């Protein structure tokens, strides 16, 4: 399972991460910033991190409990 680290201050709302997410984990809020709709559905493909032109999102492994 992964953890999404989202830096909304870097997000310009280009929608690239939302478009390329195969599981539709991400969306844009009313301010045009990314947020995780359903982080539990993330498959750690890394498409959001790879394609974000502003380095606003990172996929990191969740810590074991």
Descriptive account of the structure:
- This protein has helices at residues 16-20, 47-51, and strands at 2-6, 26-28, 34-36, 57-61.
- It is an alpha+beta fold and 65 residues long.
- The protein has a single domain (2-61), classed as 2-Layer Sandwich (Alpha-Beta Plaits), CATH 3.30.70.20.
- It has a two-stranded antiparallel ribbon with strand order 1-4. It has a two-stranded antiparallel sheet with strand order 2-3.
- The termini are close together.
Condensed summary:
This protein is of the alpha+beta class and 65 residues long.
Topology:
Elements: E1 2-6, H1 16-20, E2 26-28, E3 34-36, H2 47-51, E4 57-61
Antiparallel strand pairs: 1-4, 2-3
CATH class: Alpha Beta
CATH topology: Alpha-Beta Plaits
| CATH architecture name | 2-Layer Sandwich
Sheet having the most strands: 2 strands, antiparallel
Question: How much helix, percentage-wise, in residues?
Answer: 10-25%
Classify the beta-strand content into a percent band. Answer: 15-25%
Number of helices: 2
Number of domains: 1
């Amino acid at each position: 399972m992964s953890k999404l680290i989202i830096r909304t201050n870097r997000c310009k709302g280009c929608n690239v991460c939302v478009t390329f997410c195969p599981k539709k984990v991400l969306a844009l809020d009313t301010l045009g910033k990314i947020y995780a709709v359903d982080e539990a559905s993330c498959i750690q493909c890394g498409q959001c991190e790879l394609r974000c032109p502003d380095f606003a999102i990172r996929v990191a492994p969740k810590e074991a409990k």
